[in-house]
């Protein structure tokens, strides 16, 4: 026993100044020695631990038992690799320690004691957990872009121990909040500041991650952001989109924090890198959607007048007939064919450009007079089809007749000459109990339109 105590004394002298946690215990795992690093890490006075079983240092009794079976027993073989174990401090908080150790036997006696070396790897373990969560968030198909950004902000705030997280857009010297995590929800999207009044100004100037764990004792203590908001801790990275600087991903706190590690720097860089890729991806998707919408519009639009084309008008008419048949609307479906009078003379006397101008003028008047639910399409040449669903016959006739009157009264000049413009219009309606097809409905409107032509043109006739 005397030699056992001598060994502990020698070990204590050698290991007392080591930063890692050193524990010595007897064969029943009662603590006989701990260095200053252990006292600091666990938060207990030295005398409160001497003689106590190491069970009180584990986060769970089950882990204490497992380690007793695996490495801290008298017949255990020395472990070559460390094991990360969760330990509990006196204040109830936890830390992760990479643990090496096992039994040490005095070769000259039967005395055995347990030796343990613990290195605090909480930052590393937390970073690994954060990276795992980062992957889960960024690969999730259940979250949209804004939801992913919000989850990343929450993740960063939790990892760095900083309550404020911001994803910003920086343009022309203005710092605009895109998404934010704030304990009091004080940072709404769209809120803007001058870039020079934010710590992100340093990120943009350096074009890399910047971190300050205690601004009051740093080289930026005179920065306007510290004067205005008293933020003591900050870490932020630039967000790059398609090779261009877009904004920043940053986290901050009114309280100082321990110095940021290289893993912290890498983590915020990875978050910002992903955000940049995601913004670029979203931009590409939006560009594809816009291109697709443009192609769809081209496919259903008459290029000269900007009105719908015949194919789209046929589809709208089919849908309107189907809606009437299923009682989805309360009023009849009105259809009108509009045909320019003496259009060939306009082309012959003034040229085809003048004829094009006349056709375009009809689309301008229609936009002013027809309702949003009405459809006017170029049916062919100088002939147009108007579809007026869910409207009383009298109201539909009033709108179409007003369009005819405005066309007649229009002053449209080409090459200094006024163009003679008028319309002959044929109109018909489909009642809910009418079983007419699209072709039959068009034929009725066409018959009414020719009646208007025969009765002197520039008028509306109904059938």
What would you note in describing this structure?
With 463 residues, this protein is an alpha+beta fold. The protein is 42% helix and 24% strand. The protein has 14 helices and 18 strands. The protein has helices spanning 2-15, 36-42, 46-49, 61-70, 122-138, 145-160, 200-206, 224-229, 262-300, 310-325, 343-350, 352-369, 393-409, 438-454; strands at 21-26, 31-34, 83-88, 94-105, 112-120, 164-171, 174-181, 192-194, 210-212, 233-241, 244-253, 333-340, 375-380, 383-388, 413-414, 417-418, 423-430, 460-462. The strands form four sheets. It has a six-stranded antiparallel sheet with strand order 8-7-6-11-10-9, sandwiched between helices. The protein has a five-stranded antiparallel sheet with strand order 2-1-5-4-3. A five-stranded mixed sheet has the order 13-14-12-17-18, sandwiched between helices. Strand 10 (233-241) and strand 11 (244-253) form a beta hairpin. Helix 5 (122-138) packs antiparallel against helix 6. The chain is elongated. The model has no long low-confidence stretch (mean pLDDT 89).
Short account of what is shown:
This protein has helices at 2-15, 36-42, 46-49, 61-70, 122-138, 145-160, 200-206, 224-229, 262-300, 310-325, 343-350, 352-369, 393-409, 438-454, and strands at 21-26, 31-34, 83-88, 94-105, 112-120, 164-171, 174-181, 192-194, 210-212, 233-241, 244-253, 333-340, 375-380, 383-388, 413-414, 417-418, 423-430, 460-462. It is an alpha+beta fold and 463 residues long. The strands form 4 sheets. The protein has a 6-stranded antiparallel sheet, sandwiched between helices. A 5-stranded antiparallel sheet has the order 2-1-5-4-3. A 5-stranded mixed sheet has the order 13-14-12-17-18, sandwiched between helices.
């Amino acid at each position: 026993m005397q030699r056992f105590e001598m060994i502990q004394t020698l070990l204590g002298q050698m290991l007392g100044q080591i930063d890692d946690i050193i524990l010595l215990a007897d064969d029943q795992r009662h603590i006989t020695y701990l260095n200053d690093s252990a006292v600091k890490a666990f938060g207990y006075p030295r005398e409160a631990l001497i003689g106590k079983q190491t069970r009180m240092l584990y986060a769970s009794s089950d882990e204490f038992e497992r380690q007793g079976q695996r490495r801290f027993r008298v017949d255990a073989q020395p472990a070559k690799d460390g094991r990360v174990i969760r330990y509990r401090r006196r204040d109830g908080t936890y830390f992760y320690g990479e643990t090496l150790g096992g039994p040490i036997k005095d070769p000259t006696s039967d005395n055995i004691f347990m030796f343990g070396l613990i290195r605090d790897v909480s930052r590393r373990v937390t970073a690994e957990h954060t990276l795992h969560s980062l992957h889960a968030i960024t690969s999730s198909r259940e979250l949209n872009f804004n939801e992913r950004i919000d989850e990343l902000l929450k993740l960063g705030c939790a990892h760095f121990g900083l309550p404020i997280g911001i994803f910003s857009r920086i343009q022309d010297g203005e710092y605009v909040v895109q998404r934010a995590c704030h304990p009091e929800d004080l940072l709404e999207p769209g809120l803007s500041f001058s870039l020079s009044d934010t710590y992100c100004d340093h990120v943009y100037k350096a074009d890399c991650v910047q971190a300050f764990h205690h601004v009051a004792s740093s080289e930026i203590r005179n920065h306007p952001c510290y004067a205005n908001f008293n933020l003591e801790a900050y870490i932020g990275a630039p967000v790059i989109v398609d090779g261009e600087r877009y904004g920043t991903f940053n986290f901050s706190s009114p309280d100082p924090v321990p110095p940021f590690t290289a893993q912290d720097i890498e983590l915020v860089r990875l978050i910002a890198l992903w955000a940049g890729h995601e913004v670029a991806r979203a931009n590409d998707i939006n560009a594809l959607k816009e291109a697709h919408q443009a192609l769809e519009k081209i496919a259903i639009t008459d290029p000269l007048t900007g009105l719908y084309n015949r194919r789209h008008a046929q589809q709208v008419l089919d849908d309107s007939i189907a809606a009437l048949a299923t009682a989805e609307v309360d009023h009849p479906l009105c259809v009108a064919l509009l045909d320019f009078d003496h259009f060939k003379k306009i082309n012959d006397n003034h040229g085809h450009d003048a004829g094009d101008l006349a056709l375009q003028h009809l689309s301008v008047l229609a936009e002013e007079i027809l309702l949003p639910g009405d459809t006017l399409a170029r049916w062919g040449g100088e002939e147009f089809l108007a579809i007026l669903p869910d409207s009383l016959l009298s109201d539909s006739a009033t709108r179409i007749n007003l369009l005819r009157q405005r066309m007649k009264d229009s002053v449209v000049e080409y090459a200094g000459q006024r163009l003679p413009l008028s319309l002959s219009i044929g109109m018909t309606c489909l009642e809910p109990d009418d079983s007419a097809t699209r072709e039959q409905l068009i034929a009725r409107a066409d018959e009414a339109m020719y009646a208007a032509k025969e009765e002197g043109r520039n008028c509306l006739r109904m059938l």
